[in-house]
Amino acid sequence: MKIKERRDEKKGETKIDKDERKEESNTKLRREDDQKGVDKEEKESKSVAKVKDEQKRDGKVKEEETRLKKGKEIEQKKEEKREDEKKIIEEKDVVRMDADNTKLRREEKERVDEEKESKRMTKGKEEEKREEKIGEDTRRLKKERDEQKREEKIEEETRSLKKERDEQKREEKIEEDSSWLRKDRQDEEKADKEEKRLKKEDEKAGEETTRLKKEKDEKVKESEADDAKEETSRKKKGKEEVNKSEEKLTEVKLDKEERQASLSRKDKTRKESDSKIEKEKREENESETTFKKEDTELDKSKRKVAEIKDNKFDEENGRKIEKLLSGKGDEQIEDKLKNIDLSAEKRIIDEKIDEEESRKEEVERKDKRKEDEEKKMIKKEEEGKGEEKRDEKRKEDEKEEKIEKRKNDERKMEKERNGKDKEEKEDRKMNEETKEEKIEENMKRKKLEEKEIEEMGKKRRKENEEDKNVEKKNTEETLKQNPA
């Protein structure tokens, strides 16, 4: 009951302190609100709410105080009732002793003796219980010590087992590393063999490229020889055509001579045919305009022909035509000859232009074929180089992956070791903390038991003193009543 009263008093004091702190904080807040210039309505509302809260708190505090006071009053009333009961009992005893002092004395003595014996027995039992508790505590402490020793032994055994496991793992890791190194060496040897094989293949590819280049050069030479043959054949054809044109010119000359003879015969009848001649002149003028247009076209064609290699052929044709045109005769015959020569010349020029264009197209086709073949060769070489680069990259990537795997494995092993060390440290700390907590709990338990034992002893002493005082009073009163 006293402990509860103290706790209630402490709680009431803490609540009062809290209320005081809250009041101080409220006063500070009010001051800050006044300094900040808060509106009066808000201040009043806050103050009203705070007053209500304070009233509620004060009401709660008062209720608690009243409750505590009621509890104290009830306890006081109980104590008074006990005292009254004791007094009543004493009065009854006095009355009984008055009735029969001797019997009462005997009964009181017997009762006192019995109480003493009972107290002595209870004391002996309590002492036995204390001894039993002490023995149990000692046994429990011994068990705890034995358990601690067992735990320490178990921890030592676990540590030794962990060390053995770590050593086994290290040995396994060393074996794995050695196997990895062997594999790496084997892979390197394989890579060297593959490099040698690739070098041989590169040499073969180079030989093939040289062979293809030679074949290409031979094909180019053959194509050039074919071109030269074609050009010679073309020149021969041109000469044949020139011969044909010369034959035609000879025929034209014969016709011209015959016509001149006929014209000489017709000189007599010229005067009669003046009108006809005038008409022919008009026609000639018209033909001259057409011939001029054709001359411009011929000039253009001659310019194109000038770009061609066969300029000599054109010059010879021009000389022959000039010789033919330099002959004597009528204007009509000369015009007709011109028309014949120009048509033949045009035909020859057009044929030569067509041949030249076809030759150029063939040359362009051959050049395109050569370029395509060269591009194909270049692509093949680039593809071979690309495959080599890919193989090198693949090997480098495999080596990097192996290195990364080793690093990751080492990191994992280090993490596992660090984790194990941390777990061991944490287990040690937990064991030490649990040991300390157990020791503290045992100490607290012992202190509480000692306090309880002391309080029980004090209560018993008080009760014994009260009983002794009551006995003394009773004996004194009995002696006073009957001194005889």
Descriptive account of the structure:
Helix content is 95%, strand content 0%. It has helices at residues 2-36, 40-99, 101-265, 274-307, 311-325, 331-481. The radius of gyration is 71 Å and the shape is elongated. It has a domain at 1-86. The longest helix has 165 residues, at 101-265. It has 484 residues and is an all-alpha fold. It is built from six helices and no strands.
Secondary-structure blueprint:
Elements lengths: L1 H35 L3 H60 L1 H165 L8 H34 L3 H15 L5 H151 L3
Rounded radius of gyration (Å):
71 Å
Q: Helix/strand/pairing class, anyone?
A: mainly alpha
- Give the averaged pLDDT, no decimals: 72
Strand content: under 5%
The SSE order reads: HHHHHH
Helix content: over 70%
Please provide the count of β strands. Answer: 0
Quickly count the helices.
6
Instruction: Give the N-to-C terminal Cα separation.
Output: 48 Å
Low-confidence stretches: none
**Sheet with most strands:** none
Shape: elongated
